[in-house]
Amino acid sequence: MIVRRAEAGDERGMAAVHVESWKTTYRGIVSDKYLESLKIEEREESWKKGIFHTKAFVAEKERGIVGFANGGRERSGNYPGYDGELYAIYLLKECQGQGAGHELVRQVAIALNHMGFGAMLVRVLRNNPSRYFYEALGGIRIGTERIEIGGDLLEEWVYGWPDLNVLDDEGGEK
Predict the structure, then answer these.
(1) First and final CA of the chain: distance in angstroms?
(2) pLDDT of 173
(3) Given pLDDT bands bounded at 50, 70 and 90, which one contains residue 49?
């Protein structure tokens, strides 16, 4: 599996991973009705408009894109000292636990660091088991927020890395 910078033409693969990952990860957390409403074509159009507005990376196997992550400037301004944000990271379920997620986060952290950002945060639904992934990468819980998805009010936990350099090496944490 390789991780590389996302490029034009990757939007369809990223959209397919995005939709499939939501359906497998959020089943039982987000309403089935909402999950079934997700469409690859809509996500693809969104990526076509935004792929170059963020730092985006894809994980790829012989069969195509199996994961992606993207990040940029922290959007809310609610977390002083955290200037960067990991906007999204998704991997197909069968590709998790193989190191690609760690490498995707690392590449986003490196890109943000090179842009002059010193810290990064990520938001994750409280009931999403992926939160343990962020903890394993050294993320510390810095906040709680509420988000509405499909008409339901859900709790998000915010994890942060106050120093991106801890992710900017081959081993993850220093």
Answers:
(1) 24
(2) 40
(3) confident
> Could you tell me the CA-to-CA distances from 55 to 31, 33, 50, 107, 137 in Å, in that order?
30, 31, 10, 9, 20
Give the CA diameter of the chain: 43
- A 10 A CB-CB count for 71 gives 27
Per-chain mean pLDDT for the chain: 92
Residues ≥6 apart with Cβ < 8 Å to 35: 22, 23, 26, 27, 150
- Domains of the chain, first to last: 2-166 (3.40.630.30)
* Beta bridge mates, 72: 85
Cα–Cα nearest to 157, from 168, 144, 166: 144
Tokens of 138: 């050294």
Find the helix or strand (DSSP H, E) in which 155 lies: strand 152-161
- Phi/psi for 105 (5° steps) reads -60, -45
